[in-house]
Each structure stands twice: as C-alpha cells, then as structure tokens.
C-alpha cells in the first residue's frame, strides 16, 4: 500500500492537507517556491519532507494546493496553477490531484487527473481535511482507481460526490457563494433595522440563532469568499445578477460599518487572529 504523497503549495490549504495526512500515517513531501512557515504551529510540521522540485523523482500522487488568484479586473489568473501542474508532471508519473479553486469553464488546458476542491475553514482545517464534511471528486475519465489517500478520506467523509471536474467546480462555487450570500443578506437586513434605531441583533439572532454565516458582523472577507465570488461574477457576468447585487451589498456594508460602526465584530477568525 503506497502511503506517500507529494503536496505542491504549502500555504494554509496545503499545510492542512499535509498535516492531516501525516496524522493518518502518510509520508508527505512538500514543495513550495516560497519560504515555508509553520502556519498552524503544529508539532507535526517538521515531519513534512520539504524539498526543491528538481531534487527528486517520484510516482506518488501529487496534490496541487497553489492559490488561483484574480487579476486587477477580477478575472481568474491560473498562471501559478499551470506552473504547479507542470512541476508535478516533471517529478514523475502517478495521478495529479488539483485542489486549487478553478472556475468550471477553465479546465480545458489544465493537465490533471482529478479535481478535488477543498471545503476547509482556517481554524479547523486540519481536522476537516482528515474527516471531510464534503468530499467532491471530479474525474476526467474514471474514478475507479482512486489514490490511497482519497480512499482513506472517502471512508471518513460525511458525503461523497463523484462526477466531472466541471460539476465539482460548481459545487465549490455554490458553497462559497452561498456562504457569502448569507452574510450579505443578514448584514443588509441588519443595516436597514439599525438605521431605524431598532435592536437588529435581537431580531436577527432570534430568527437565525447565531448560526455560522448568519450573524450580523463585518463584510465577508478572508482568503476565499471575495476572490471566488468576484471571479465567478467576472466570468458569468450578465447571468449572475444575484451575485452582482451581493457584491454591491457587501461593498456598501463595508463602507457603512467603517464609517458608523468600526467596532463591529468579524464574521470569523483566521488562524493568525485566533
């Protein structure tokens, strides 16, 4: 049984994957063009075998966790993803698993085997990687011969979806945009009440019970929600009218709280704020 895995991109997603696999007794090699710091302050960080891409060859599965950024106009920029995929093929054979968030229209020229988007929250990312609430696998051909680590995650996942990369990508964007939409709706309703002198939190908390993404607070932010929502809106433009309104509402709320209520709490805490 091959329990070796290579992770390309050791940011917060890549490290969460690496540490999750190490805790489940996999051997993890890590590659990153940047200096890698122990983001999670986890003692198992030192077990990641960090190497230069050209220093070894291996047919182990390669997991791509580099960030897909947006350009100045909000258009998705996949240059880092292309580079990481090229590196993966240069290291050796074996399946290449893409975990970077990619728009469903952008897979045509990407050289990978499986698209497995992540649904991680920064404060609980390691445990969520070990026991996924959603394991979504988009395969170009067949998902019959999954690598060992995916079979392992499949056993512990609450729900598993097998489909095409495009279907998997839409699930990823459904998740992120749904979270952003809920935040925007609650904040907008809260502001309408707040401007009229009402106890907005009393009303909102009764109805929404202070569940995640359903509490009045700051605008949606972080690594994923603004970037992914804007990339989706830029790509689908006239078809995404609700998302366009959501983006406008979020920007209005950002200005409103900065001017009138700068003490409003964040929607969630990132790992460096915990």
From TrEMBL:
<dbReference type="GO" id="GO:0051287">
    <property type="term" value="F:NAD binding"/>
</dbReference>
<feature type="domain" description="UDP-glucose/GDP-mannose dehydrogenase dimerisation">
    <location>
        <begin position="166"/>
        <end position="251"/>
    </location>
</feature>
<dbReference type="Pfam" id="PF00984">
    <property type="entry name" value="UDPG_MGDP_dh"/>
</dbReference>
<dbReference type="InterPro" id="IPR036291">
    <property type="entry name" value="NAD(P)-bd_dom_sf"/>
</dbReference>
<protein>
    <recommendedName>
        <fullName>UDP-glucose/GDP-mannose dehydrogenase dimerisation domain-containing protein</fullName>
    </recommendedName>
</protein>
<dbReference type="InterPro" id="IPR008927">
    <property type="entry name" value="6-PGluconate_DH-like_C_sf"/>
</dbReference>
<dbReference type="InterPro" id="IPR013328">
    <property type="entry name" value="6PGD_dom2"/>
</dbReference>
<dbReference type="GO" id="GO:0016616">
    <property type="term" value="F:oxidoreductase activity, acting on the CH-OH group of donors, NAD or NADP as acceptor"/>
</dbReference>
<dbReference type="InterPro" id="IPR014026">
    <property type="entry name" value="UDP-Glc/GDP-Man_DH_dimer"/>
</dbReference>
